[in-house]
Design brief:
single chain, 663 residues, Rossmann fold, Alkaline Phosphatase, subunit A, 6-stranded mixed beta sheet, 4-stranded parallel beta sheet, 27 helices
């Protein structure tokens, strides 16, 4: 077989059985590309978790269809071993055929505990290697070495020099190949056998990209100081206060290394430093890492970052992680442009944005529903976040967790905040990622998904309000075994004294889970008159009052595991006219309209051909969105606003950040 998915897909022929029950302990059927293939064949895939929620969807959507004589190809996944299928409801067992799939069947000669730790996107390389090499049965260490070599392209025995190690680590972290800890430990073990690496902080920088970039950042001035004087040695000059062990000098100028370093400065992973003694006419890759007096560094960096993002546009068959990686770079560029008030760059940004969002809308149409059932290990959708937090409390032994939801914060606005927070607290570690908001990107839809940990279809009665969030948040944690007296929720935050806010909310030693809504950015959105550039300017002014950084600092000091996300982003857009629809729309947003039937929606859509009739993926019955993708808005023609509700990259992909304090 060409790939591992074919072995599974051969069991799924349309119109054979209206119900299929699958034991899927390794989350294979919910892998992004396999999920897409199943949908293309007409199969609906739902996960059996909460029996009550499942019964609601099953009875209202599928049993009612069968009673009317309609056929469905429904796949119900139980993420447990095959023996657990028999515990499912009797009526399902009576009519459903039963299947099971596991990594052990796909990779019979490899150690299951090792390959089970791999992200499912890595299975393609592993299966290809298995087909090519036909390995004999392997133990744990042999499997680890096999996976390192064939999946991550790392052969530890072929890393003899420091420059080779640096190149491998850059390949891992810049390429976002998140190596499981069990493989990182094996790699570290083998590397430590080489005397050249005994001083390197391998335990910190091999698996942790944030620590690795910090390691590079503090060595960069040492490298530059060597350029400014021919007699400088390999030891760090006094005054650098290096926090990480290892060699003081790193070979940044090696031909295999400098291309990575150049991009890391462009993309904001590394920060330029002031080194007036370095020749201002140095090579361009060095110039990205130094602040040169009397030059417009930001303009040069912006131009180069434009070139970079234009070359790295994802494609219609890209993975969701490709879009997240691109969105992070796009956000860095957007923040630069909006904070510099360069009209020429703003025009260019809007032009590229239109191209991106046309492509993104097409990708969402085909791929978005495949994100729903992905494992919450790396939250792909907002409702995965509380499930990830609960897993950390259970498996990682965390004592308490705090989730801050900044209502309306876009990814580029987070970048602006992050730059400012670095100056406000240099010991704050920010582990940045991003995730997808719920569509339509309305607060009542997306923010409730965060606090409930559920698809919007499971809270239909409150889909148009946020008043049930505290109840949903408490219910979620009670289902995880946390007492309601240990759970706190508070909204309408953003001003005042952060310490007093915390003291008024929690009982020290008792409060285990905190959910907070900071709505300052959303208030700015609804009052802004100067577009996206004005948004960034007002967000900077708000952050300078230090509420957010002090809130995070206080929570960390109280030993909370602190996370930040947003329910949706926002985009500057221009009015294309308001639909004349009387009372047929239940929600009349600037970027989305909600209708009770698809017929009413289609009637309005004919007048606005640039709008998208969004399929109600994971949404309640009688909830049919008409959404906008580019920079159009349902407001008076020519009016410029900042809005949300649509399916642009800026609205859909939002920040997800975990905070720590550097010791």
């Amino acid at each position: 077989m060409n790939n591992w998915r074919e072995q599974i897909l051969k069991e799924f022929t349309p119109n054979v059985a209206r119900l299929t029950l699958v034991a899927d302990p390794d989350s294979l059927l919910t892998e992004e590309k396999l999920s897409l293939k199943l949908r293309e064949r007409g199969f609906d895939v739902i996960e059996y978790t909460d029996p009550v929620e499942f019964r609601y969807v099953y009875e209202s959507t599928y049993r009612s269809a069968w009673d009317c004589g309609k056929h469905t190809d429904l796949v119900v996944i139980l993420k447990s071993q095959v023996t657990e299928i028999e515990s499912m409801p009797y009526d399902l067992l009576q009519i459903g055929r039963k299947l099971s799939f596991s990594l052990g069947n796909l990779f019979p000669n490899m150690s299951y505990p090792i390959i089970s730790k791999l992200d499912r996107s890595m299975l393609d390389k592993l299966f290809e290697a298995q087909q090519r090499t036909m390995p004999d049965r392997m133990g744990d260490n042999t499997t680890k070495d096999y996976v390192l070599r064939h999946v991550f392209g790392i052969a530890p025995e072929l890393i003899p020099r420091e420059v080779d190690l640096l190149r491998v680590l850059l390949h891992l972290h810049y390429g976002k190949y998140h190596i499981p800890s069990i493989l990182a430990e094996r790699l570290i073990q083998v590397l430590k056998e080489n005397d050249s690496f005994k001083s390197w902080p391998l335990s910190e920088i091999v698996a942790d990209d944030t620590a690795f970039y910090d390691f590079l950042q503090e060595r960069w001035p040492v490298f530059l100081s060597r350029l400014s004087g021919p007699n400088q040695g390999r030891e760090a000059p006094s005054g650098y206060n290096l926090k990480y062990s290892g060699p003081d000098y790193l070979p940044f100028d090696h031909q295999d290394i400098k291309v990575y370093i150049d991009n890391l400065f462009l993309e904001g992973q590394l920060t330029p430093v002031e080194m007036p003694e370095v020749d201002s006419h140095a090579d361009s890759w060095i110039q990205t890492g130094i602040i040169i007096p009397n030059t417009d560094d930001e303009k040069q960096r912006t131009s180069r970052l434009f070139d970079l993002v234009e070359k790295e546009l994802p494609e219609t068959d890209s993975r969701y992680t490709d879009w997240i990686d691109f969105a992070l770079k796009w956000a860095e560029l957007s923040s630069l442009v909006y904070c510099s008030n360069n009209t020429e760059h703003e025009i260019r940004l809007r032009e590229i944005s239109n191209t991106i969002n046309t492509l993104f809308a097409e990708w969402l149409t085909n791929h978005y529903s495949g994100l729903i059932n992905l494992p919450p290990t790396k939250p792909a959708l907002l409702h995965h976040i509380p499930r990830r937090l609960a897993r950390d409390l259970d498996l990682d032994g965390k004592d308490s967790v705090a989730l801050i939801v900044v209502d309306g914060l876009s990814l580029d606005q987070w970048v602006t905040i992050r730059h400012l927070m670095k100056t406000q607290d240099s010991n704050l570690i920010m582990r940045e990622h991003a995730t997808f908001a719920w569509i339509p990107t309305l607060t009542s839809v997306s923010r409730q998904a965060i606090f409930s940990g559920k698809l919007p279809q499971y809270f239909p009665s409150s889909i148009n309000t946020t008043n049930n969030e505290e109840k949903l948040w408490t219910q979620f944690w009670e289902n995880q075994g946390v007492s309601r007296f240990e759970v706190v929720y508070k909204r309408s935050l953003g001003d005042g004294d952060a310490l007093k806010t915390i003291d008024s909310l929690i009982h020290r030693g008792r409060t285990k889970v905190i959910g907070l809504v900071v709505d300052k950015v959303d208030k700015i959105i609804h009052g802004i008159q100067l577009g996206s550039a004005g948004m960034h300017n007002q967000i900077i002014q708000w952050c300078q009052k230090r509420f957010l950084v002090e809130l995070i600092r206080q929570l960390i000091d109280l030993k909370y595991d602190v996370w930040l996300t947003s329910d949706h982003g926002n985009i500057q857009c221009e009015g294309k006219g308001r639909p004349s629809e009387g009372v047929i729309a239940e929600t009349r947003g600037e970027r989305t309209r909600i209708y009770p039937t698809p017929e009413l929606r289609s009637q309005v859509a004919r007048t606005f051909p640039f709008a998208h009739e969004w399929q109600p993926v994971g949404l309640p019955a009688d909830f049919y969105p008409l959404v906008l993708s580019g920079n159009d808005a349902f407001v008076k023609t020519g009016d410029v606003i900042v809005g949300h509700g649509g399916i642009s990259l800026q609205e859909v992909i939002v920040p997800l950040v975990r905070f720590e304090r550097r010791i």
